[in-house]
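--- STAGE predict ---
source: upstream dedup step, 1 unique chain passed
mode: sequence only
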Amino acid sequence: MNAEARSIAKDETPGIFSEIAPRYDLLNHVLSLNIDRLWRRELVRMANVHKSGAVMDACTGTADVAIAFGKRLEYGTVAGVDMSDGMLGIGQSKLRKRGLSDRVKLFEGDALALPFASASFDAVTIAFGLRNLPDYSRGIREMVRTLKPRGRLLILEFCPPTGGLSLKAYSFYLQSVLPVVGGLVSGSRRAYEYLASSIGDFMTRDQLLAMLSSAGLEEVRARKLTGGIAYIYYGEKPNGAA
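--- STAGE serialize ---
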């Protein structure tokens, strides 16, 4: 996928995700064999937020991560932000069913210009959303801005293998399995072709770790998940940082 095509695709992502919103959760669980649930659970655990803390989940989609925090933070507050009104509508319905509408609030907004004051949150998370942003570095810096000093940024993302049989198998899955199965179930093959491309074109682990350090974060590290299919990236905002 060339740079121009990638930029055009990312400009269209709110509409694309709204198209597939009704089947999005089902496909996530089916295509990952339910491993995605374990990954999100580990993301919440690593955030280690006090029960009265404040959390923001960027590119929240149908709010799975926001809901997980809402269950954990008995006295805290959770904000979920996404540009897709279709995805947020599904998320709102899930919140009502779980009785979490008072604790978790969803907002339509851009992760590159978050609608929150600086130093608002104890933790900020983004799960499978960073690769959909047109400017990775700007998105990371904007999320860091909203963190309190010693606040934690956690990013859950796929990480394609770098070579060998693993790369060949992964490439086959992205090019042949994901678009076909995703297209058949969701009714939008182009959405899953885009998702496959966004995974294959994403940064390496070392590139993302370097970007977190460049954004001023400390204690930067990556937690490998399921043999390196995905990683949770972690960094802390220093004391005294703006």
